[in-house]
Design brief:
This protein has a seven-stranded parallel beta sheet, with helices on both faces. It has a six-stranded parallel beta sheet with strand order 10-9-8-11-12-13, sandwiched between helices. The protein is built from 15 helices and 13 strands. It is elongated and about 75 Å long. Helix 1 packs across helix 15 and helix 8 packs across helix 13. It has two domains: 203 residues, Rossmann fold, CATH 3.40.50; 185 residues, Rossmann fold, CATH 3.40.50.2000. Strand 8, helix 8 and strand 9 form a beta-alpha-beta unit. By secondary structure, it is of the alpha/beta class.
């Protein structure tokens, strides 16, 4: 049976789909889940690894799951992934991260979320020794450079990152298209029946959290600047001794380093119950809702973000936000946050004090935050991504017509 030429076969590298891929996994999950609903014409091949293969479920006859059990950022990925792609006879591949195998022969589009590894090339951001880190960093630079040059289009998540890519790789701006990320579960939050039945005070006590606390939710990579936040907090509690700082994130190598910093500053001891700084580790969604609702504010001290989803999610949960003024943050958060320079400890302290001492500002930030978060949704992000695929097919069709005429 002859294939309908109007129907295209599109592959999406979803090996980081879901919680497995953390923030990137969220992006991939939302793009995949929404785009297969939006596009009623083309066929999709979703490449997954063993850990998330059963997590992705679709009864759509135009969607095929393929097990590509190849770990990302490895030599094996570079060698084996091109064979998986060739086997599926794809018209286009979407790599939702920079790790495009060098030997990829398919036409492809790549999403580049940020250039953190080029901005912060430091062995503090890795568990590798110095030699292997430098080797891996060199490989990263080569792979991302080739991806930018060989892709049909580059998708990115903010105008800030687009500008970064243009300057770093000398790419024509027209080749880079911005699709903002989305915010999930805007209608849920404290309206959830299950969460409403939970005891807020009991939940806080289970994590040894007092009534008055600042909240951070996310990972502890060096560019997130949690060490700078800890240093500012140490000075802050001299004036506000009943204040807690709650740092929520799954235990890993980088959170262990953050705990060491807190211990060195005299803010945390493993054996103590009443620490000024609290590390609850992973917190389930229903309990996290309570932390957002009861937090005095969400603090985001990052040096660099391609988009910065965590503070937007805090806004969606009705939590006022104070944020770093660096990179994409003012673009994404607009006037719905108070800003500070993360390189200046005194500024961080002053902005936190401002919100602590002014209840009216806190209420205004809540209202502005809810409105700001509503501007971003995953369905729109997926729709714009689908349009980029179609743009490539339209150019291809036009070129074929021109060749026939000549």
């Amino acid at each position: 049976m002859k294939k309908n030429k109007k129907i295209k076969r599109i592959g999406i590298d979803a090996r980081m789909y879901g919680p497995l891929g953390k923030g990137l996994g969220r992006y991939i999950q939302e793009i995949v889940d929404n785009i297969i609903k939006i596009d009623s014409e083309n066929e999709y091949v979703i490449f997954l690894c063993r850990e998330n293969f059963d997590e992705f479920v679709s009864d759509n006859p135009r969607v095929k799951k393929v097990l590509a059990d190849v770990r990302w950022y490895t030599l094996k990925e570079q060698i084996l992934m091109p064979f998986y792609l060739i086997k599926e006879r794809l018209d286009l591949v979407h790599f939702p991260h920079f790790n495009v195998p060098v030997l990829t022969f398919n036409k492809f589009v790549v999403t580049i979320h940020d250039l953190i590894l080029t901005k912060f090339p430091t062995t503090r951001a890795t568990t590798l020794n110095s030699f292997f880190y430098r080797l891996k960093n060199w490989a990263y630079k080569l792979i991302i450079w080739l991806a930018t040059k060989r892709s049909e289009y580059i998708i990115t998540v903010s105008e800030f990152t687009k500008k970064d890519i243009v300057e770093k790789f000398k790419i024509e701006p027209e080749k880079i298209l911005v699709t903002y990320e989305g915010v999930a579960n805007l209608a849920k939050g404290r309206d959830s029946l299950f969460v409403a039945k939970m005891d807020d005070k009991k939940t806080l006590l289970s994590y040894n959290i007092e009534e008055k606390f600042l909240l951070y939710v996310g990972n502890a990579y060096p560019h997130k600047n949690l060490e700078g936040l800890l240093e500012a907090f140490k000075d802050l509690i001299k004036q506000f001794p009943d204040l807690n700082l709650v740092l929520v994130g799954k235990e890993d190598f980088f959170y262990e380093k953050t705990k060491k910093k807190a211990r060195d500053l005299g803010l945390w001891e493993k054996e103590k119950q009443n620490n000024p700084v609290i590390f609850p580790g992973y917190v389930p969604d229903e309990k996290l809702e309570i932390l957002y609702a009861r937090a005095f504010c969400y603090v985001f001290p990052s040096f660099y973000e391609g988009f910065g989803l965590p503070p937007l999610e805090a806004m969606a949960k009705n939590c006022p936000v104070i944020s770093s003024n660096q990179s994409s943050m003012p673009e994404v958060l607009g006037d719905a946050a108070l800003y500070f320079n993360p390189y200046k400890k005194r500024e961080i302290i002053n902005i936190i004090k401002k919100i602590l001492n002014n209840p009216q500002i806190r209420l205004e930030l809540k209202e502005k935050g809810r409105k700001q978060a509503r501007k971003y949704n995953w369905w729109e992000c997926a729709r714009e991504t689908r349009e980029i695929y179609q743009k490539i097919f339209n150019v291809e069709k036009k070129n074929k017509k021109n060749r026939r005429k000549s």
